[in-house]
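Re: BIS(adenosine)-5'-pentaphosphate structure - here you go.
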Amino acid sequence: MSELNLILIGPPGAGKGTQADRLRDDFRLPFISTGEMLRANVKDGTELGLQAKRHMDSGGLVPDELIVAMVADRLHQGDAQDGFILDGFPRTTGQADALARQLRDQGRRITAALLIDVPDAEVVRRISGRRVCVKAGHNYHVDFDPPKTEGICDQDGSRLIQRDDDRPDVVQNRLDTYHAKTAPLIDYYDEQGLLRRIDGTRSPAEVHDHIRAVIATLRLEDDV
Ligand code: AP5
């Protein structure tokens, strides 16, 4: 069958990173998160990280030209040649057009855009309780998805902290940015017949099952 090139869309706190951790174990596809890539650049103090940090800390978007170049490099790497799952990219129609152009130039295309749908009030509840590990960014929630030992990552034993952009004032800006800049991608991909909706209000395990079922259906459709 042909490659699976998937996009995950959803508001901040929808559970994209949580599902990424689960899907990584299911499929032999690289999971490419622009948020994770940017945080790694900030941590390493690169030029890109320095430029990105102020946008991230305010809840705005990093400029398209920086992000598009970063993702284009990543998609050219060997492990992304047989398919990929993109998380947090594209986030604007400009980024979506750039991605479509890049893939077309390589004779490739998007297979589907998976929307993890969660209302704003739930986003705020989730983000206020989110904790991430300092080593690899594994996600937890103090109430909904707690670690086995408080404050310690189950997967790598590192310390759990709150992200800088999870402060309440920044969260509201991130939500506003999502509705203004990213939500138009829902119609963008729907009009191309590529959108698949996932109810993100269910438990992490149920959301995971739904995504796996959608991906299995895409594979079957592709085999027909
Ligand atoms: P990014 O890291 O992509 O942040 P985001 O999209 O705001 O998403 P989050 O990481 O906050 O949430 P998530 O959906 O992964 O939810 P999670 O699984 O953690 O981007 C950060 C910043 O980088 C952006 O603001 C922007 O500045 C910049 N950036 C990134 N990409 C860019 C781009 N393409 N263009 C320009 N700028 C870009 O879950 C949240 C919490 O809920 C967790 O505690 C989790 O345990 C809990 N939870 C998850 N699922 C469930 C569930 N089903 N039920 C109950 N609780 C749940």
